[in-house]
Amino acid sequence: VRETQGDFVYDLGYQVFYEAFAQLDGLNSFDQFASASGAWTITPATTIAASDNFAYVSGFSDVFETTGNIATVTAGRTRIITNNANASLTHRFGSLWELSSSVGNQLYDYRDPTQSDTTSTSGVLQLTRGLTRRLVAGVGVQYQRQEFSAVPQNPANGTTFYQGFGVVNYSISPTWRISVQAGPALAQPDSISVDSVSLLSYFAVDPRTCPTNAAGTPVLLQFPQSDADLCERSLFRTAQGTPVAALAPTTTRIDVPFVGDQEIGGSLNYFGRISIDKEWRTWRASLGYSRSASNSSGLSTSTALDQLRGDVTWTPPPLWNLAFQAVYSKQTSVSDVRQREVALLTEANTQILGGVPATAFFGVPFEVDTGATIANAVDVDTMYFELSGVRRISRRFSIDGAASYWQQDTSGVLNETRTQVIRVDIGFTWNFDAIPL
Questions:
Q1: Beta pairing, strands 79-93 & 97-110
Q2: CA-CA-CA-CA torsion sign (307, 322, 74, 67)
Q3: How far is it, in rounded angstroms, from Cα 153 to Cα 340?
Q4: Cα dist from 359 to 202, 213, 230, 363, whole Å
Q5: Burial class for 234, CB neighbours closer than 10 Å (0-12, 13-18, 19+)
Q6: How much is the pLDDT for 108?
Q7: Which tens digit of pLDDT belongs to each residue from 338-351?
Q8: In the chain, count of helices (H) and strands (E)?
Q9: Digit-coded pLDDT (tens) for 217-235
Q10: Other C-beta atoms lying within 10 Å of the C-beta of residue 12
């Protein structure tokens, strides 16, 4: 529903989307999208606007398109709730100066309990001035606060960003435009204050292969997002050393005292974007690069998102519209992540397996401390390509189609995974007469 009433414009929308799989009907699901926006021109020089976009989707659906952030980490198919709300105020001082301010809130709520939900709140203030008929320049500041919910491996935490930036918009010609916005950003992670950490009650370890701390006690190296055991998992062995059976750790968790320093120092980053747009009679192309704080990692830590994007649209008259889009993005940790050292009390257990005595070593965690920091705990590389087209058949009827490929590689000290999605869509659109209100 779209309507203009004098100085007020509003737009309301709702879409339901159903996905069915021929062989994996357990993945069939409905996705829902809702949006609302409005703008009010208070005076010829002052405008306020607000918008909200909501989505309840599955991990293999279009969440990366609706949020404008394709780097969402989805380890398999999972349900995600996203909501993006924004409000802005723009005021012009004469014909040269313009002041704009905005506030926003983004929510990523993962149904998977192992992925941390993220809430991000931001505020931007920007002042620009027209220097020539083609050149506009200005400055601005931004505040951003990210908060991550607690997950079984990590307590709740957050990061605050403070950024200053410059703005340059230049029209090289009526069909060439370049836009730049960039500046330094200080990231300040919260200190995590916890008295204990929940760990598995026993680990299957061989103390002869585990690293040791200064006191000579075997330690299990961990990171805040993982219970990954870096010691060699022990096997039951006969007196002659022959492995006879693997020992699985228990699923019982206990609270282990935390005695280490959890302070994490701030880091200086750069955030910004640059884009170049070019138009021809039937072609339009754009190329852009941006670096920002990602709000959708689900990794319980702040990450920086570098994104390179290219779009080409061809509209040969009068019936065709073709478009190609290519995106590459990379997520990296914003600040250092402290590894944890879990001190282990080693015990031996002898059992009779097949009539033969066999000995296994157990590691009983009794204390958690902090060790060295890891400069980059995770890398997430994403590629996305899409070719789409629309063919008008008549004034009311058109056929459209799209083919896309999406690949995401996650690597680092946490895990190493690859997700690939190949998708082909074919559909049609029928336009009815406008409904008078």
A1: antiparallel
A2: positive
A3: 12
A4: 16, 25, 21, 14
A5: buried
A6: 87
A7: 677 788 877 777 77
A8: 1, 25
A9: 777 776 655 554 556 656 6
A10: 12
